[in-house]
Amino acid sequence: MLRFGVTPNQRHWNAMLHGASRARDVNSLDEIWNGMLATGIEPDIVSWTTYINGLIMCNKDQRGLQALHHLGRIWKQTTKNHSRSKRESQDEPTTDPHSTSTKHEAGRPSLAPVQAAVGALLRIRKEELCWPLLDWAKSFSIPLTVGFFNVILRYAVRQTEADLINRIFKWMEDNNCSPDEQTYTILLNGHMSNINSTFPNLSPEEQQTSVLHILDDMTGKNIPIDQRTYGTILYGLLNPKNEKRNDRAARAVFDHMEKNNVKPSHYIYSILVSHYFSLNPPDLQAVESLWKRIKTERPILDREFYEKMVKGYAAARLVERMLYFLRRIPHEGKSPTWNCLSVVLNTLIQIGEWSLVRELITDVKDRRSGLRRFADERWQGGTAEDDFWVTVDSVKHKIQELG
Questions:
Q1: Which of 92, 203, 219, 317 is a good FRET partner for 185, with 20 to 30 A between their CA atoms?
Q2: pLDDT by residue (tens digit) across 3-19?
C-alpha cells in the first residue's frame, strides 16, 4: 500500500497482521508490526492480540509472552503519563485516567490477548506456560470469563486430563464464574467422542450415573438443556460403531428429556431409528412405535431420517414399508439420494420384484415423477449415480424378457 502512496490506517495494519499470523509467517509478522510502529500508529488491543497469538503460533512462544508483558508495561507507563498530563492541564481533582481518553483506552490490557495467548500455547502443547497468565490478568483486574475457561476446558477434555478438568472447575469457582451450556457441551463431547476417553470403559450403570449427574448438575444451575445436548449424549450411548451400546442409559436420558419438556429433534429421531435397525435382530416394533409418535407430534424431519427408514426396511426385506418411506421423501419436498435409490433397486432385484424394478427405473427416468422433480441440481453426475445406471444396465435384459 505504501508503494502506491496509500497510507494504511489501523484497520489495514490489523488485517495485514491477521494475514501474516494465519500464514504462520513470523518474518512478515515482524515486518508488518515494525512498519506500523514506524508510521507512528500505536497498536490497539486488536493489534496486540493478533501479534501475540501469531508469534506463539509461529513457535516463538517466549517472544509472544514478552510482547504480552510489554503491553502491560506500556499501559502502566501510559496511564501514569496520562494522569500526570491531566493534572497539569486541569485544576479539577484527579479522576480515573482509564476512562478519559479514547486513544488511551485503545491499548488497555483486556482478556482478548490473554485468551489468544492461552489458546495458542495449548495448541502448541506448551500448557505449563498458560497458568502464569491467569495471575497476569488478575494484576490488571481483568475478569476471567466462562468463555476463557471453556478454551482451557476444551484442551483438557481432548487430552483426557481429569485432574486439569477438576482444576478448571475450581478456578471457575474461585473467580465467581459459573459454567454455561457450552461448558457442559464441551464436557459431554469429550465424554462421548474423544477416542482417549475413559467413558466407554465404564460399566453401563456407571455411564448412566455419569451422564445423569451432568444433566442434573445443569438443571441445578438453571442451565438450559436443549435438543443438541440430549442428542450428543444419545449418540454417544447408542452409536452403532460402539462395541458396547447402553440402551438402559439412553432410556434414562430420553426420560430426562421428556421430564424437561424437550421435544426430540430430527437428529434424535435419526439416532433412535439407526439404533433400532442396527440391533440383531432389528427391533421393528420399536421403529413402528417411534413412527406412530412422530405422526402424532408432527416434527420437521430431514431427508436423512427418511433414508434411514428406507435402508432399514430394505435390510429387513420389508418391501412395502421400504417403498412407503421412499415415497415420503418427495412427498416432503425432498429428493432421495442416488445411494438411497441404489439400495432400493438392489433390494428389489435381490428378492425378484421385477415389476417394481421396472416401475422404479421408469420413475427415476421421468423428471416429472416424484423421485425427480425436486432439487434437480443434486442429480448431476457422481459415482452413486453411475452405480445406479450400471445396475440398471445389468438387468435390462431381464426386464425386457418379462415384457
A1: 203
A2: 555 678 999 999 999 99
